[in-house]
Specification:
heterodimer, A: about 270 residues, alpha/beta, 6-stranded mixed β-sheet, 3-stranded antiparallel β-sheet, B: about 260 residues, mainly alpha, 12 helices, about 80% helix
Chain lengths: ~270, ~260
């Protein structure tokens, strides 16, 4: 079992509702899971919990058979290098070269001096080139990060995932800046890579159709709770509708809105 | 109106007590002395012997500033890494640092305050007592004060840069220093560099001032010239200061351009 969560809850300081509550699930090595649910459901928080990046306020997380939050500081940090978390918009320094940004994925296994030397002369440009080539970005190798488009930057973040040697890949909405064709290609690369490494792949997605057609297991999350956790075949349209069905939002009466816009703007200084 | 009157009534005895009398500036004797001194400024001294001496003193000043700043950097870089919260893994995990980390950071911040709260001139006076007249006192004084300034400002530059890139690397298991070098440093480098060259410029000026208390360099020569009322020499040395600062400015902008 790569990940096991028992009754995990995350409560942020000052928040009214917990970001996650009572999440219990297990993910076996090599499993590929799609995480779906409306915005604000807690998908990103769950990925961060799995990565050991934020400490759950309740419950227990085990990763690779160890309990990260009971390990000493250093051992926990070492465990993190076996998990790769790719955030939705990979924050990269705008002035960095793409090759350096990609090779940053190697930092956990490189010593400090090698990392430092690689800032000046990239230590493994071939690895970065190969990783970028799988996303058709090989010609951007020595480009500056701020010259990339949003979609290119997102794939550059995933190239970083490819050069890491993690055995659990957590990807947060990898397709948010990609067109439909690129989306399929990118997911295919991620799934292929996870399969060859026998790594866990957990991918949060807003593209429900893609999730249902490509991932064998789907977890539906809403309001910080797991609504369903089922094999692809067992997920029905009704379950999806219920997951995304918004609580009846009473729209503001039109007359009131009209009145507001008709009023002269007063008191608009602050 | 009443306030002004009150102020005048209050200030008058003080002015009398301090023997402040602006009219002495206009007395014939003072005017003549001033005129003689200022008219000496032109032409600035330019004999070969004086220029050689000034060149040597300038070299000494630049050397004091550079050596002092290098020593300051040796102390400031590790202190910065200890003082900045951007590489705190525990802050990432739970929103607050571990107690040990917080204590260390607080201790380092206090040390930095202590180092920079004593003006370099005071450090210089202290060191002149300990190691005697000469450049060593100046170098040590600059090293201590500037270590405090650089450490504080470096830590703040790093903290005000976008911490997300560093945090992402830390979350994926990178070492703290490596995460800093790949995350925050590329963005902060230009600002760090320009602050450092600006401090070098300040150190040159500072070493001149410290020369007056006997810490060597151009300042000591200027002190001597002033005491001998040699206006021409003072003028030449002031011109040299302007050139030095302009030079530091040029180096700074050239470095920034290369980084940008």
């Amino acid at each position: 079992m790569t990940f096991a969560l028992r009754g995990v809850g995350v409560r942020r300081a000052g928040a009214v509702r917990p970001a996650l509550s009572e999440v219990t699930l297990g993910i076996e090595a090599g499993e590929q899971v799609a995480l779906i649910g409306p915005s604000g459901a807690g998908k990103t928080t769950l990925l961060h919990v799995l990565a050991g990046a934020i400490q759950p306020s309740d419950g227990e997380l085990s990763a690779f058979g160890e309990l990260p939050w009971q390990l000493p500081h250093g051992a926990r940090h070492a465990l993190r290098s076996r998990i790769f978390l790719a955030p939705q918009t990979p924050p990269m320094p705008p002035r960095q070269r793409v090759v350096t940004a990609v090779l940053a994925g190697c930092l956990p296994r490189w010593g400090f001096w090698k990392s430092l030397a690689s800032l000046i002369r990239p230590a493994a440009p071939d690895a970065a080139f190969d990783a970028l080539a799988r996303f058709n970005l090989q010609d951007k190798l020595y480009e500056r990060v701020d010259r990339l488009s949003g979609g290119e930057r997102q794939r550059c973040g995933m190239a970083r995932l490819l050069v890491s040697d993690a055995s659990a890949l957590l990807v947060d909405e990898p397709l948010s800046a990609l067109d439909p064709t690129l989306s399929r290609q990118t997911l295919a690369v991620l799934q292929q890579e996870a399969a060859t490494r026998r790594a866990v792949l957990v991918c949060s997605l807003h593209q429900v159709e893609l999730a249902r057609s490509l991932f064998p297991r789907i977890i539906g999350l809403r309001d910080g709770q797991v609504v369903f956790d089922a094999a692809r075949e067992a997920v029905t349209d009704q379950m999806i509708d219920a997951l995304y069905h918004h609580a009846a939002v009473t729209p503001a009466p039109e007359t009131a809105a009209g009145d507001l816009s008709a009023q002269p703007v007063r008191g608009a200084r602050c | 109106m009443i306030g002004a009157l009150l102020l005048a009534v209050l200030c008058w005895p003080m002015l009398v007590y301090t023997e402040f009398n602006p009219l002495t500036l206009l007395e014939a004797q003072s005017l003549e002395a001033t005129w003689r001194f200022l008219s000496d400024f032109f032409p600035p001294a330019h004999s070969a012997e004086f220029l050689m001496m000034a060149l040597q003193a300038t070299w000494e000043t630049v050397a004091i500033a550079t050596a002092g700043l290098t020593l300051a950097l040796l102390g400031a870089v590790p202190l910065t890494l200890m003082a900045t919260s951007i590489v705190s893994v525990s802050q990432l995990e739970s929103g607050r640092m571990r107690l040990a980390g917080r204590l260390l950071r607080q201790a380092v911040r206090w040390l930095l305050v202590l180092l920079r709260s004593v003006p370099e001139l005071v450090w210089a006076l202290l060191f002149v007592r300990i190691v005697g007249l000469g450049p060593t006192a100046g170098v040590l004084a600059i090293a201590l004060t500037y270590c405090g300034m650089l450490g504080k400002v470096y830590a703040e530059i790093l903290e005000s840069s976008d911490g997300h890139a560093t945090a992402t690397l830390l979350e994926n298991g990178a070492g703290r220093l490596a995460a800093l070098c790949y995350g925050a440093l590329p963005e902060a480098a230009a600002e760090l560099l320009s602050y450092t060259t600006y401090r070098w410029e300040c150190a040159i000026r500072g070493s001149v001032v410290m020369g007056f208390v006997g810490a060597g360099g151009l300042g000591q020569r200027m002190d001597e010239s002033l005491k001998m009322l040699a206006g021409g020499e003072v003028a030449s040395m002031l011109l040299i200061f302007v050139l030095l600062v302009a030079c530091a400015d040029g180096i700074s902008s050239a470095l920034r351009k290369r980084l940008g």
